[in-house]
Amino acid sequence: MEPFVSPAGGLGPAERRRTARHLLLDGFGLAAQERLAASRVVVVGAGGLGSPVLQYLAAAGVGTLGIIDDDVVEASNLQRQVLHSAADVGRAKPDSAADTLRGLAPDVEVVAHRERLTRDNAAAILGGYHLVVDGSDTFETRYTVSDAAAGLGLPVVWGTVLGWDGQVSVFWSAAPDGRAITYPDVFGPQPPEGESCATVGVLSPACGVVGSTMAVEAVKVLTGTGDPALGRLLAYDARTSGWDTIELAMPPAEEPAPSSDEVLTPGGAVPTPSPEPAGTPSGEGPLVLDVGLRPGAVPGAVFARLEDLAAGIFPPELLDHPVDRPVVVVCERGLRSRGAEQLLRAEGWRHVTSRALVG
């Protein structure tokens, strides 16, 4: 894609020495480094994801970094929020983060927004930046970021991590080549709040992996180097250290229904997991529960959002299904379905299996 930021004036000798490994990098070089120096990036959240994002963007040479967070450092944050130290407990996170970043890259301009991002202030705050990095941990903030950024035409590098799993993508309402996809296009309307790191835990180094990947995506968008994850969802499983890539597309206004013996998936048509009308509870047959990214992609299946299941909100068909009868949970790559399997087993369904629709 084309560079998103115009290059600044020439870099001074000290900055050129500090970023010499970028200047030597094939496909990057001086022009890209000057674009970083001219870039203004705002990071929502100075926590588990914001920590590696902010550190790497400052180290990479981004000229201005905004930090939006209304929280204070707590002892339980230090397991994963590596911007902060034990001496920072009780301090406002933007202030603690700013001190760390200035020590790492003294020339970076750090703007601390010590407030919660809301629908009332989002446009005013985000409008002063070229790009938004969303490392927030609530649906309310994610949808607020998405709506404000779409209205301003700003790209959003988004990431999440929970338990062992993480996801990264780049959403941009003005993206070229049919990749103008936003967060709600993928995840649908805003759901109730679900599980969080505080309730199910998180592997601390996974925050570093996902946050560093978000920083990579931000650098690519700003400089026009590489191929940013526009139109793609990158899914990380720390158990295996594996990454899956899910191709995204805007859902068509109307889509012809597939035949009853096929399932539409990102990879084409595959047999349905069950020859019976899967979503219909019965005394003998399994119930197929689709927790994928595209509602209606599995004919006859019962669709449920993984976030709703985590919040204890179950579709009526599942509640009516006997707990001793099989439930088959499916999604595109098997990551969401595996999480749903664990949730359902914990809720008392005894025979739950998960499958990926695309290998």
Question: What does this molecule look like?
Answer:
- This protein is α/β, with parallel strands linked by helices.
- It has 2 domains: 13-247, NAD(P)-binding Rossmann-like Domain (Rossmann fold); 263-356, Oxidized Rhodanese, domain 1 (3-Layer(aba) Sandwich), CATH 3.40.250.10.
- The protein has helices spanning 13-18, 20-23, 29-38, 50-60, 93-104, 122-126, 139-152, 183-187, 197-200, 204-223, 306-310, 316-320, 335-346; strands at residues 40-44, 64-68, 109-113, 131-134, 156-162, 165-171, 232-237, 242-247, 263-265, 268-270, 287-290, 302-303, 327-331, 352-356.
- The radius of gyration is 22 Å and the shape is globular.
What's the structural domain tally?
2
User: Element order, helices and strands?
Assistant: HHHEHEHEHEHEEHHHEEEEEEHHEHE
- Strand order, sheet with most strands: 3-2-1-4-5-6-7-8
Major sheet: 8 strands, mixed
Number of strands: 14
Mean pLDDT: 85
CATH superfamily of the largest domain: NAD(P)-binding Rossmann-like Domain
Structural class: alpha/beta
State which percent range the strand residues make up: 15-25%
Shape descriptor reads: globular
- CATH overall fold name of the largest domain: Rossmann fold
CATH architecture of the largest domain: 3-Layer(aba) Sandwich
What is the highest CATH level, the class of the largest domain? Alpha Beta
In DSSP terms, counting alpha (H) and pi (I) runs of 4 or more, how many helices? 13
Q: Could you tell me the radius of gyration in angstroms?
A: 22 Å
Helicity range of the residues?
25-40%
Poorly predicted runs are 253-283
Span between termini? 29 Å
